[in-house]
Specification:
Blueprint (H helix, E strand, L loop, with lengths): L2 E4 L6 H8 L4 E4 L1 H18 L25 H12 L3 E4 L2 H15 L8 H13 L2 E2 L2 E3 L8 H11 L4 E3 L5 E3 H7 L11 H6 L3 H31 L9 H5 L4 H14 L19 H4 L1 H23 L7 E2 L5 E2 L7 H29 L22 H17 L21 H31 L8 H12 L12 H12 L2 H10 L4
Parallel strand pairs: 1-2
Antiparallel strand pairs: 3-5, 4-6, 6-7, 8-9
Length: about 500
């Protein structure tokens, strides 16, 4: 999609990904502008009253007890942005920053935050100009919103700090705004707080991870099917009637995908010929159960994400009856839990893929394949060290699966005494997703090589399509040892970009 039109009712996951990754432009609907103006009138009325209102005429957090006079309120809102832009560490990826900016804009357009239309239009202007604030790795506890990351974004809106231009060069924000004809925004009552107080960073990372994992789970069904073929396994365990006995929808989908890939294979079912096996190893036989459980986890995470996309996370919030009330909706627990849950599921998927790879390389368990799939074992080492790399990735994924959301460090002089650590969970999940694509890439290398070494047996048409596409993409087949890193890089790209899935689906049709 080229343009996303924002209204007061929220956005879809696809629209967030389109803006974050695809650079889609952003427009505010007339309804959104009307909702912004209506809620602003409520805030302006409260600002004129002598009674203190949190975020409008008071300090913040543990300093909320101080009433702020009218002449200091612009300074108050500017100061919260400056003081909260306190991140440290490496720069966060451009797509994550764009996602959190767009999601904050989504909440502003709900009419629940009380900011002026000029603030929302300013944020949309940054997105459309391709100006991406510099946001740092550390600074959010996932409660009271992703404060430091959002503050760095708001700082750019004020024309302060540093940002990345459309060309990727980091420059002073004031220069970039001037270059694109954008004026810095001066903040009025509540507006600084409204720009900071949301779970947008962790939600953005969840939505991006869901898009990636939906691809990788289907890709894992493909690599599992290829490994089954290369190991001369049986596809009988994939039968619909067997999987219906345990009616988890994800399991049924994974088994169906594997059946499609293996349809017409001449390699499956040969395990009784020369070395009788009653059944295949767990890593082969239970592939649909493990991948299926992960799929069901994805489904739950999507439900949480959809609810968050329909939410307006801010504190205080403008209600339909005109009240402005303090609340705890900024707590990131709902998002943090599923971010952690996905990291657990992804680690287990990586783990079972590595076990299949190891089986393919071990001559005592590979049912006739050469040691390490080497051309001249002893002279050649084959894929021995590729499995080392894969094992290292799996080990890191297990460490990344340690839940961040069970940790909490009190902040703001014990006013904010329980936090979600959802931002940290999101950062861990992003690393885990990258590792999973690499792990599946190594399994792909081993499985395709194993299939090609089964002389005289014809693989499934879908498998042949994968091998042909992989070889065309630079992933080489069996042969003497060579510099292996380029092959692994080509395989990772082949998996990550969806080329693997496209090759399979050219034969099978869409996989679930």
């Amino acid at each position: 999609m080229d343009t996303v039109v924002l209204g007061p009712s929220g956005v879809t996951a696809a629209e967030v990904v389109a803006v974050a990754r695809g650079g889609a432009r952003v427009e505010l609907s007339d309804e959104a502008l009307a909702a912004l103006a209506a809620s602003r009138r409520i805030v302006d009325a409260l600002a004129a009253e002598p009674a203190p209102v949190y975020g409008v005429s008071t300090g913040f957090g543990a300093l909320a007890t101080r009433y702020i006079d009218h002449e200091l309120r612009t300074r108050l809102q500017r100061n919260i942005v400056r003081s909260h832009a306190a991140g440290m560490g490496p720069h966060v990826e451009r797509e994550v920053v764009r996602a959190l900016m767009f999601l904050r804009l989504k909440t502003l357009c709900s009419g629940r935050t009380g900011v002026r239309p000029e603030v929302a239009l300013g944020l949309a202007g940054l997105l459309d100009a391709g100006i991406t604030p510099v946001v740092h790795e550390y600074g959010s506890l996932g409660c009271s919103g992703d404060l430091a990351p959002l503050a760095h974004c708001a700082l750019t809106l004020l024309g302060e700090g540093e940002a990345e231009g459309p060309d990727g060069t980091v420059r002073p924000a004031a220069e970039l705004l001037a270059e694109h004809g954008l004026a810095p925004v001066e903040l009025h009552e509540k507006e600084g707080l409204a720009l900071l107080n949301g779970t947008d960073g962790m939600l953005g990372m969840l939505l991006l991870a869901l898009a990636d994992l939906e691809l990788l789970y289907r890709s894992a069904d493909v690599t599992a099917a290829l490994s089954l073929e290369a190991l001369l396994g049986t596809d009988k365990v994939l039968a619909p009637e067997l999987n219906a006995v345990r009616p988890h929808p994800g399991q049924a989908a994974a088994a169906a995908n594997m059946r499609k890939v293996l349809d017409g294979s001449g390699l499956t079912g040969h395990h009784q010929d020369d070395a009788p096996r009653v059944q295949d190893a767990y890593s082969v036989r239970c592939a649909p159960q493990v991948a299926g459980a992960g799929r069901d986890t994805l489904a739950h995470a999507r439900t949480v994400a959809e609810r968050e996309l329909a939410a307006a996370v801010d504190n205080p919030v403008v209600l339909d009856d005109g009240r402005v009330e303090s609340n705890g909706n900024f707590h990131g627990a709902p998002v943090a839990y599923v971010l952690d849950f996905l990291a657990v599921a992804a680690a287990d998927l990586g783990s079972i893929a590595e076990r299949r790879t190891d089986r393919l390389l071990d001559k005592s368990r590979s049912h006739g394949l050469p040691p390490f799939l080497a051309d001249d074992p002893g002279v050649d080492s084959g894929l021995m060290i590729a499995q080392y790399t894969q094992a290292a990735l799996v080990s890191e994924m297990k460490r990344l699966a340690v839940p961040a959301s069970v940790d909490s460090i009190p902040s703001s002089a014990m006013q904010e005494d329980h936090v979600s650590m959802g931002w940290s969970a999101g950062r861990e999940l992003r690393s885990s997703v990258r590792n999973l694509s690499r792990i599946l890439a190594v399994e792909l290398c081993a499985a395709t090589r194993g299939i090609e070494l089964r002389a005289g047996l014809e693989p499934a048409p879908a498998s042949r399509a994968v091998i042909a596409a992989a070889r065309a993409a630079g992933l080489q087949g069996p042969g003497p040892d060579r510099h292996l890193a380029p092959d692994l890089a080509a395989a990772e790209e082949f998996v990550r970009t969806g080329a693997l899935l496209a090759a399979v689906q050219s034969v099978t049709g869409p996989l679930a």
